[in-house]
Amino acid sequence: MGRRGDGGGRPVTRRLADRLTALLGGPARARAVLLLAGVLALNSADAGTIGAVANQLEHDLRINHGELGLLSGVSAAVGAISCLPVGVLADRTNRVRVLVATVVVWSGSMLGAGLATSYLWLLLSQVALGAALAAAGPVVASLVGDLFPPSQRGRAYGVILSGELIGAGIGLLVGGNVAEALSWRYAFLLLGVGSLGLAVALARGLPEPQRGGASWIPYGAPLIPLADNDQDPAGGGASGSVPADGSVAALIDRAGVSPVESRTLREPARELSLWRSVGYLLSIPTNRVLIFASALGYFFFAGLRTFAVIFVERQFHISQTVLSGLVPIVGVGAIAGVVLGGRLADAALRRGAISARVVAPAFGFGAASVLFAPGLVSATLWVALPLFTVAAAALASANPPLDAARLDIVPGGLWGRAESVRTVLRLSAEAAAPPAFGFIADALGGGTNRATGLRDAFLIMLIPLLVNGVLVLVTRHTYPEDVATAARCEG
């Protein structure tokens, strides 16, 4: 018997695919956002796998929580060191080729992890992964700016950033089950092989866009209307922050907000040297707060994805099989949060809420910190589960409008370097988080078989997350003039 279809004979899977494509804005947009989401999924899948196989790694390699945290943090540390030069590449070279090379290196790192025979070998594979990790953030941010109009970037980012959550879920579910059935080595090998497929898809399916808005993809476009990958990557001259579609810059212009003349560039932003551009980016008040806030959010997320499996198994005394059934529940909540976060902020923007892209993340961070706390201290899984799910949705909802806001306040010619500056702090936070969570948990007496140390570590780390929300909310006073200034600058 064939698969059930609709009245036109189309199978159910095809109808679902068509609906997803329509939801994402048509075939061209769907292909672009899904490929970029796949890139962001890779690192999260690796980190999620480490968390999923944590018990096996601690047993087989005879390591403690702190050493496990170091394993997760070293790749982020290496990425933080190497990402600034990558930002220059994102602003001046072919970005799709950089992504393809990055994914190939990622694949090799994961294959190396699967073949590791010692803790040192596994640690070195994560060092190689970190060198590739540096490219993802700057290149993806620059591509988003040149693929999607300003007023729709929150929505696009919502889907793209869901890749981070889906990747972490794949690492937790697939990695954990594969490790339980076979070995933790096969979990990494599976990721390595899958990464090669993504590299091929990127090379064939994502042409290099022109800079300055000439390649924005319209709704319903059947094919990506881009130049091929042999084009001059520095083509185009307008700042991507200059809107033509009712974006935040257009609203601010109509409201009569004036740019800050002392920060209005008199030369093309793309031509600034690395250190001049870093100085300029750090002179933007809103940008300073947003990159710090983003880093704090990822600090908590990095600790969470590394130790969540161990904590839940030991706090609630459940098996890997039961946990595998619970992870999708929390994961669906987080994905709903990241997708809706961008959409709702963009919708508020269309209704005239100029500061929606900074107010929404502030409430997301605050709500997450308040909701996680009772879940962590609960001794009953069915009380903690809904709290964790809603808290994960709130935490995830902050990132899409936050990332879209950073594109709003930076001239288009500096998008890659702006993301590199942010990525330095973000990856530094991600590098510090797992060791910090692990060592605090050990110091608080959790031991290797108790959850109390990890619980207390998570509770302590909720405090900066709450402060984070307050800091982001304050930027509603500086955000409008920073957007106006970026729109005045030449890309």
UniProtKB/TrEMBL annotation:
The chain crosses the membrane at residues 71-91, 98-121, 127-144, 156-178, 184-203, 289-312, 318-342, 354-373, 457-475. Pfam families: MFS_1 (PF07690). Its main location: membrane. It comes from the Bacteria. It is a multi-pass membrane protein. It is found in: Cell membrane. Signal peptide: none annotated. PANTHER family: PROTEIN SPINSTER (PTHR23505:SF79), SPINSTER (PTHR23505). This is Major facilitator superfamily (MFS) profile domain-containing protein. The keyword Disulfide bond does not apply. Keywords: Membrane, Transmembrane, Transmembrane helix, Transport. InterPro entries: MFS (IPR011701), MFS_dom (IPR020846), MFS_spinster-like (IPR044770), MFS_trans_sf (IPR036259).
